[in-house]
Design goal:
Elements (H helix, E strand, L loop, with lengths): L1 E8 L9 H13 L3 E4 L4 E4 L2 H16 L5 E8 L7 H13 L2
Antiparallel strand pairs: 1-3, 1-4, 2-3
Helix pairs in contact: 1-2
């Protein structure tokens, strides 16, 4: 499965920024060993249901350690029997575009 998720504390730091808290969540994701990528809006994570959801929970807990309230947006592509889709889906799209 692939999960796209975004975690943010309810309040930012003294400048309104949330990057330090979000960085804690990304550290958890990268330490997990699961395939992942981060862009400006979401972090994509690929693996089996239980391992992916465990990492998402750990990432939420990391942000919750610095904020009493946490926002989580999550979207999942659940396709049993398929792996490597984090990049394969994009490759198929590029082929369809003919570029």
């Amino acid at each position: 499965m692939i999960v796209a998720f975004s975690i943010s504390p309810a309040a930012g730091d003294e400048t309104g920024g949330v990057s330090e808290a979000v960085a804690e969540a990304i550290r958890v994701v990268r330490a997990s060993g699961l395939r992942n990528e981060t862009n400006a809006m979401f972090t994509n994570l690929e693996g089996e249901w239980d391992e992916v959801m465990a990492v998402v929970k750990q990432a939420v807990d990391a942000v919750a350690a610095v904020s009493p309230r946490v926002s989580l947006v999550l979207k999942a592509d659940i396709r049993p029997g398929y792996t490597g889709q984090l990049t394969a889906k994009v490759e198929r799209l590029e082929q369809a575009l003919g570029d």
